[in-house]
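Inputs:
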Amino acid sequence: MTVKTILCPTGHLSFTPLEKGSFLLGCAERPDYIIADAGSCDMGPRPLGADQHVSLEAWQRHDLEVMLVESRKLGVPMIIGSASDTGTDRGVDQFVRLIQEIAAEHKLAPFRVTSIYSEQSLDDLKRRVRGGARVEGLDGRPDADLATLDRTSRCVAVMNAEPIRAALRGGADVVIAGRSSDCAIFAAPLLEDGFSPAIAYYTGKLMECASFCAEPYMGKESIWGRVEGEIVEVTAMHPGQRCTPASIASHAMYERTNPFREYVAGGYVDMTHCRYEQVAPKTTRASGQVFVPSPVCKVKLEGSGLVGQRRLAIVGIRDPNTIRLIDKAIDWAKGKLAERFGPVGEGYQVFYHLYGRNAVMRDLDPAPDMAPHELGIVVETVHQDGRKAEEICALAARNLFYARLPETKGTAGAAALMSDEILIGEPGYEWTLNHTIDVKDPMELFRLRHHRVENGTLKEIA
Amino acid sequence: MARLRDLASTIRSKNAGVDHITFDVIFRERANFERVRDSGVLARDKVARLFGIPETRISHHTVFEPANAIKFTIRRLKPSGTPGESDVFGSQQYAPLFDVEVP
């Protein structure tokens, strides 16, 4: 029976640099594939909306270099998903450029790189919606309409295994994929090798976060997967980590609402009857997964839209009377904003984050501390025009200083300004699309380009 | 009375997509898991009361036997990272679970 092995060094390439030691231990075992995902929605909507990467390029280069040099030495495919945090076209091109530069630096023998683009034209999506296509809301969201798309600055579709399989069939040694489902980048080569969708996607589900599926807790360490028939065995490569039934099972539920189902474009993996078994000190065997195909291929869309320019100010309060009456002080300050700029929420927004009371949990905090020793307040304002956001922020913060409260003894200022300045925040974005769109062909939203890297140059090939 | 922090080995919260925060309470010892599971202190209505939210905001509530875990998911009022939001990873919402009393 066919046996294939996969080495995964990181759950989010270059968010912080991968640990080379356990990766090289894995390379010494000669894996068939080296695979890592580079993206996430965890950083919020701005990186996608503004088309920026949050991982530093120095770390992206580091991680890609470690992986590329070793995969070329071994002569095995290297697959990267969700290039440059968000998987936009810019991110894919950036990673291809880094691959080319690293290859030149190391004078690597010629090899083939396939890039897969997943960014979507908003005009094209609008045409589809006008033509009657349903953009179906996930997680209780309403379906998207033209107004939703109008609020969207940028959109990526999340690819399933098919585009990556096409790249591998085309002879790619390195695949740089745009936004991709975490488990699809692992499933693609296994499906090409003839494994079932059940074990292919399930292996991806277990391996995609690298050492997060092992114990004790460590990030950025490599894990090893060995797939045979309908069984996968996962091994921690770091000398101090183990994969245990408990660590693998608890990872199966990580970041998901439903621990029994892992959804991909063509269906879902049912993990209800999975079994976990310790087969060696660092290795756990998993099996029992079932793949339930969906009658319609639903591709996920992620979209982010600009809300406005943001400004921030930091204010501290020590007077116990002001702390006790902080809600009144904020109401007074908001009243002054309304007098000058119109009702709060109409054309601008203002938020007072009360650190020391309940800034972290807000409405979910069952026991906010109403009388902390001191209170740290971050004032956040949003307006289309950055200068206006700044003016509103200055007034929102300084009016805490001038707040008119009963029984105030400190008549020279009701708040401490850490420094009397307004900080320029990054523009504010919101997730506008967390939806799916029905497609006939799982390839139709994705575009492949094949290249040959040779003597430090990149040549597109047919 | 024992508290959840003394019985569970992991108590965590994390984004599950951009619209939800999911909570995992995981036990190393099967007996502790069964004790908490059977006590009902983490039942859907109890969790809603603990966080001061209507039960309808708890979109999923599951006992996950393979991991000795109880898992529930709360819908965010606004998607993660929207201006005014305060926990973009959803990673610091679990603290109130520590002091839940377990008979």
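Chain B touches chain A at residues 10, 14-20, 22, 24, 26, 28, 50-53, 59-60, 62, 64, 66-69, 71, 73-75, 77-84, 86-89, 92-93, 95-96 (CB under 8 Å). Flag for discussion at group meeting.
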